[in-house]
Amino acid sequence: MNTNDALPSIRVVLADDHDLVRSGIKALLTMIAGVQVIAEARHGQELVTLVESLKPDVVMTDISMPGMDGIAAIAEIHSRQPEVRLLVLSMYDTVDFVKRAVANGACGYLMKDAPPFELEQALRSVMATGSYFSPAIAQRLLQPSEPTVDDELTHRQVEILRLIAQGRASKEIAFELGLSPKTVDVHRARIMERLRLNDIASLTRYAVRKGLIKP
């Protein structure tokens, strides 16, 4: 009997906003016995929709994506389908990134520069034990960290901060989130007050440091 036939099938939905990166990861995943990439997403909202309809075993997602980011998508998927394993595949290894991902429902965290064999190790682990953290990430989780952005701001404030840091004007943000420009301005003032930051440049640097937008 072929030992590969005994391996359980793992259905994966893959999310990354860079087509080339996503194609490379997919190529590596398809080389793993029993693993099938059943769909790909370029942003968080597309990922949520695909997972809702396809009900995969595992989601592998980047964090920084346009529109709904990976953290928001993870939270949405976890609330709707808690049985889906959510594995982050990221270039960021700071404690803040990892803890935000886990707090929102991720059960594993893998670096994009990990050796190819670790992809299989991570998938098998999340299916068998429900979690996977590379040794380097596990070590970082033991370190003390500053409060995460979710500790400091409300969900709505995080949304608005991310859009501000992307250079969006109040009217654009208001239109996208279904708010009035005045409400957006009030939120911005409260964000600045809560974070003790006085200008847009400082807000942008904070957003980059917390992983809300890419550097």
TrEMBL record:
Which ranges carry the HTH luxR-type domain?
146-211
Coiled-coil residue spans: none
List the Gene Ontology MF annotations in alphabetical order.
DNA binding
Domain (Response regulatory) spans: 11-127
**UniProt keyword terms in alphabetical order:** DNA-binding, Phosphoprotein
User: Which residues, renumbered to this chain, carry the PTM 4-aspartylphosphate?
Assistant: 62
Name of the protein this chain belongs to = Candidate response regulator, NarL
**What is the protein's species of origin?**
Ramlibacter tataouinensis (strain ATCC BAA-407 / DSM 14655 / LMG 21543 / TTB310)
